[in-house]
Amino acid sequence: MRLFSNETISQYELDIVQGESVLYGQAQQLINICRQKGERSCQRFYEALHEEDTILAEDIDAAIHEGELSFSVQPQQDTEHPHSLSSHIPAPQEETQPVSSLLQDLKLKCGFGEEIQLQQIEQELVREAVTTLQLDTGRSMSLNVCEFGVLLGLPRKLVQDCLFELESAEDFHQLAAVIHIFMEKTSDKERLRQKMASINGYRLLLSRRAKLLLKLLQSGLADCHCSEEFTQQFSNVCLFILRDCLAETEEDASEVSTLDIMGCLQRLERTSLVDVTIPRELAELWSERAAENFQRSVPFIAQLVRDLFPRLDTMEFDAVPVRRGVYHCHPRAVRRVTSFEGLPARIIRKVIEPKSVLPPVNEERTSFGSQAEEFTRLCLKTADALQRVQDYQSKGTITTLRRNLDKQDVATEIRRVLATEAFGCSCFDSGVRARLLTLVEFDPLSCNKPLFLSLHYDTFLSLAESLKANDRQCFQFVFEEVHMYQCKEGLHGMRSVRGPVAIDGGIEEVFQFSTTGRASFLVQLHCRGYRDGQYFQCNQPLLYKMSNVSGTLPQEAEGAGTVVANQAGTTWLRESPSGGLKEIAERIAQSCGGTVETGSCCFLINSWSAECEIRLLYKDDTITAMAERNADIY
Q1: Is residue 124 located within the same domain as residue 220?
Q2: How many CB atoms lie within 10 A of CB 67?
Q3: 617 pairs with which residues across the strands?
Q4: For a Cys-Cys bond, which of 42, 431, 459, 627 suits 247, CB 3.0-4.6 Å?
Q5: In this structure, which long-range contacts are made by residues 246-250, counting pairs with CB atoms below 8 Å and at least 24 apart in sequence?
């Protein structure tokens, strides 16, 4: 699944692997596929292996060292980045300890001096969970443990309250606390084991950037323990993290770089992607401006990062029930659409790929001169890339930056270019723009935080990725509502599994729908994007929902539209290409005292299993759909 997520293997190849009935056959197929794709795919196979099976990875490393071979596994990247930059971000390294020694004296420290001593059975369950989730038992923060508790069936508020009371926000302590609260509520160890076995651990993993942000948070807290005074360093750390979180949640993030900590918290409180409890509690802690609140604020900030930076980076919607059988579709992350269509690969390579672009980063480097040189070089490359975007957008002549600019001059140049029309929120991803402004504001040397340099490199990689031509940058299908139809099954959600791709004069994308079982359901949606630089939104053909209409519908109504569904006195009609259904529906409803509601495009899906796939097509200002796998569609 790691290789599928980072697009090393395709859906077709994944099906081949999973189609093998025994594990040996699956392993053989996977290795053969990666070998046929070449060195880079094999490298990614080893990266995934090191993350999935640390014991086997250690055996392989030992064998390699005995043979005096040189093999270095770089941290796995979330997305495809230029090879010349793929090794420049150090992965947070933690020293691990045996689980048994950690559990032996583990006491979970909570507020008011309270401690929780795990029972023997709870220790055994924690050990099993560590193995199942391949958890690093060091001081790492690499999982969304709150989400783990929710997947176990516990209420999110209960899990959050439990985690926010802990003095430590590290994975191991949080995992132990969640298992303790589950056993305290149920005393059912077999039920817990069954639930843990059914969890897809990959959904709990955090992105590369999340790990860096959480390591920065730990580093900032450690520095503050060295001083009795309220330090500016920790304020800088928290401001950096909160702005980064806000850049993930705002459709228009153009003002993010102007906000202080309290301003970020006020904006975060208003977004649907964030649990309102977190920014409210943080605002109360920060308003007191007391050094002792540093420790208390860490679990809240850490959870904010965990919620907003998952490893999974697909177009996903969660199903939020609003009433029986009816779900609103809630996007798991902000997906902006802009008129920026990307740069040709040849232009990106000129800026990013030269071997002299960037030296490796070592955040523990003691040479401030080297750090200053690296940061200046990074700013210069960023300014060069942005200038290329501006020149390409305006179709002007290529502007070459002087290589002898100092750090202040480069920062001024970056701010100048980002203030131009080419980087407005409708022309360029405003989240990337906000992070680029953060790059020039948080100087690793001035702030005395080398980890800022690692995050700035990550920002540069994000910029490089955003420069690539991608249909997702300027087009998007948006799901609005789902009605379960004549069935008692529930809806989990939907996610993009292929595309979008522009082809045959339209744009296609394949979505996977997940339900509790075989089901029928009505899906309402629209699409939006930019075409020839102009914004558009399409919800055609329209849906007309007619209720309390006595008898059968007149023939004229069925001639102007297609009956999608009929249930309990309510009929869903989709307008025909010829149009005219609105006037007919309103006239019928008025004549018999019924009602008519207008909505976005709607399709009825009959799934044959708990998962099905539907291909959506936008073409000629109309949305159509066809069954791709395990479904019929009407």
Answers
A1: no
A2: 8
A3: 508, 624
A4: 431
A5: 246/434, 247/430, 247/431, 247/434, 247/435, 248/273, 248/308, 248/309, 248/333, 248/334, 248/431, 249/273, 249/274, 249/308, 249/334, 250/334, 250/430, 250/431
How many helical (H) and strand (E) elements, i.e. helices and strands, does the chain have? Answer: 23, 17
> Which pLDDT value is given to residue 461?
87
Strand partners, 510: 498, 615
Average pLDDT score over residue span 312-321? 78
Mean pLDDT computed over 132-152: 85
What DSSP letter does each residue of 352-386 carry, written as one string? H-STTS-PPP-TT---HHHHHHHHHHHHHHHHHHH
State how far the Cα of 539 lies from the Cα of 621, in Å rounded to an integer: 9
**Residue 576, beta-bridge partner list:** none
Q: What is the pLDDT of residues 524-569, one digit of tens each?
A: 999 999 998 899 999 999 888 877 766 555 555 666 677 888 777 7
Residues 385, 457 within the same domain: yes
Span 332-389, pLDDT tens digits: 888 899 999 888 888 777 777 544 444 444 444 444 557 778 888 888 889 888 988 8
Residues 92, 217 contacting (CB under 8 angstroms):
no
What pLDDT does 106 receive? 63
State yes or no: pLDDT of 113 exceeds 60.
Answer: no
Respond yes or no on whether the N-terminal peptide bond of residue 75 is cis (omega within 30° of 0). Answer: no
pLDDT at 632: 92
The owner of tokens 């985690």 is 163
DSSP H or E stretch at residue 617: strand 611-619
Q: What residue numbers bound the domain in which 244 lies?
A: 216-291
* 172 and 107 fall within a common domain: yes
Q: Report d(CA 170, CA 306) in Å as an integer.
A: 12
Total Cβ atoms within 10 A of residue 35: 12
Q: E strand or H helix at 565, and its extent?
A: strand 561-567
- Signed CA dihedral, 458, 93, 261, 164: sign only: positive
User: Nearest-CA neighbor of 336 among 409, 428, 266, 404?
Assistant: 428
478 and 611, same domain (yes or no): yes
Say if residue 479 is in the same domain as residue 549. Answer: yes
Q: Would the pTM count as exceeding 0.85?
A: no
Greatest extent of the chain over all pairs of C-alpha atoms, in Å:
87
Same domain, 67 and 163: no
Greater confidence, 290 or 363? 290
Residue 369: partners with Cβ closer than 8 Å, 6 or more residues away: none
Between CA 53 and CA 4 the distance in angstroms is 17
Joined together, the tokens standing for residue 412 give 């001024």
Residues 6+ apart with CB under 8 A from 285: 293, 296, 297, 300
Q: Which of 499, 524, 497 is nearest to 600 (CA)?
A: 524
- Mark residue 375 as left, alpha or beta (left: phi above 0; alpha: psi -120 to 50; beta: remaining): alpha
Residue 489 lies in a domain: yes
- Assess if residue 13 is contained within a domain: yes
DSSP one-letter string for 247-263: HHH-SS-TTGGG--HHH
